[in-house]
Amino acid sequence: MSAATTGDSKAPAAPANPRSRVITASLIGTTIEFYDFYVYATAAVLVFPTLFFPSANPTTSLLASFATFGAAMVARPVGAMVFGHFGDRYGRKATLVASLLTMGIATFLIGVLPTYDNIGWWAALLLLILRLGQGFALGGEWSGAALVATENAPTGKRAWYGTFPQLGAPLGFIIANGLFLIINAMLPHPENPALQSEAFVAWGWRIPFLFSAVMVIVGLWVRLRLVESTSFQKNADSGKLKKSPLAEVFRFHWKNLILGTFIMLATYVLFYLMTNFTLTFGTRASSVEVAQKAAEAAGKPFDPSTFIAGGGFGYVDFVLMLIIGVVFFGIFTLVSGPLADRFGRRKTLIVITILIIGFGFLFEPMLGTDKGLTQAFLIIGFTLMGATFGPMGALLPELFPTNVRYSGSAISYNVSSILGAAVAPLIALQLWQAADGSPFLVGMYLVAMGVLTLIALLLSRETKDINIDN
């Protein structure tokens, strides 16, 4: 039986969700969510600049590709409002099914999209539209999954249960990048390792997008078996549901919307710096000479004035390094839940945020061409990522009462995606370029965002012992 009925012997007529179903339903959706995002992020670095945004200036192509990557973040708050309204008004289950189905269709269609060589700039426009569709669906996905976990959690274990939807991030990364590695291994390799396989560029990159359909079908099967949580059912039975939960949350809970947004800010920035930026930095040539030789081998023009130095690692080598780091991401996502249940969400996150601020100063000395230092950098960064990401699954929903919880947590989470994730790759790229290939300013950007999150945490209250049935 769900522990959301704490202190109340009147359970709803509908059976409670078994723990295994709660964990699976909350985990599989976010795994698919992050799988889709990682697939897009990887393609945005490796092939989309060439296939959809061709330009004589490779940095311009990369910026255009990152712009579509960030565009989904702009659509996410819109999705949060729409799915949040239906989730608070009519229930979590149907909303979660709809968001997952929307995401699956958009991702699959990206896999069959014609490129610039086929239809010109229409290809970029269609890619943007589908990316916006992904973002719209994601606006309702995370919050619903977090609510399934926390509203069905046993007493004293909300943060622990809240880590299961968060675990979808490292799992999605490993599945997505593991699939890219398998595809890369199966395709013929060019003699020059700095170049992409022609088969990969032509059609290999499409396979991960098409494969998402299999994962979505499994996710839909699990979620269709859910019943509504005790918290939501109690509010529905007692007539506490609001006709306009969106208006309600903005009118009476605006302070927590703002605090939740900034509490999540450093997490989002760290997340996309550790995945999107590090992949771009690590696989970029380490010198002008190396980049020029690669361009000549590919028969492409090269402008030294636009070159930004990177780590110089091969794609396969660096993805394997990322996967090692992401293992720590997963471990510390799970570890953070019991810590937040024992010591409180606020206290736990204050300590972790201070460590994230300190981590920003390690970009310059550790992220570079030295494999050992770079691997250590990735492990530290992903460890902190897991530690800060895990408690968010409980903290953000706990900021809001049941009848506006879906809307409130979804809006905070997704507005933060604009302030953090949407602009992080673009800002990082510009700072990297401004510093002549040094990641120092990128680290200072993380420091600044960490300070904003720390202020928000200091202004917030502890939510560990609140009754979420209200």
TrEMBL record:
Gene3D superfamilies: MFS general substrate transporter like domains. It holds the Pfam family MFS_1. It is a multi-pass membrane protein. InterPro entries: MFS, MFS_dom, MFS_trans_sf, Sugar_transporter_CS. Keywords: Cell membrane, Membrane, Symport, Transmembrane, Transmembrane helix, Transport. May be a proton symporter involved in the uptake of osmolytes such as proline and glycine betaine. One of its GO terms (cellular component) is plasma membrane. SUPFAM superfamilies: MFS general substrate transporter (SSF103473). It is found in: Cell membrane. It comes from the Bacteria. Residues 22-462 form the Major facilitator superfamily (MFS) profile domain. Its main location: membrane. PANTHER family: INNER MEMBRANE METABOLITE TRANSPORT PROTEIN YHJE, SHIKIMATE TRANSPORTER. It comes from Mycetocola lacteus. GO terms for molecular function: symporter activity. Belongs to the major facilitator superfamily. Metabolite:H+ Symporter (MHS) family (TC 2.A.1.6) family. This is Putative proline/betaine transporter. The chain crosses the membrane at residues 62-83, 95-113, 119-138, 159-183, 203-224, 257-274, 313-336, 348-367, 373-399, 411-432, 438-459.
